[in-house]
Amino acid sequence: MEILITQPAKAELDKLLKNSEHKYIRIVTKRESIFEKGRLDFTFDKKEDDDLLFKAEGYEIVINVKLAAQLQNLTISYGGLLSRDKFTVETDFGLFKY
């Protein structure tokens, strides 16, 4: 799996990880209402038995094996035109199904 972490995301991740008790970035699905499509997000967590571990640009990223099977390329970014103070986790269009 290809994982890209943008420079602004790295700077913000470093700040957050410095104060976290966990060292892994966990990619998760998030759905805020029944009317919304599922999307990807992340949290800081520990590694579980049914996780795959990926190393990207000095970060350790864990993804549940079932979710990882649906993803090929992953981008973690921070900021931008529509989300100035937010992280965004994106994957190849059409590959992720909630």
From TrEMBL:
Q: Which domain of life is it from?
A: Bacteria
Q: Which InterPro entries match?
A: HesB-like_dom_sf
Q: What is this protein called?
A: Fe-S cluster assembly iron-binding protein IscA
Instruction: State the species of origin.
Output: Romboutsia lituseburensis DSM 797
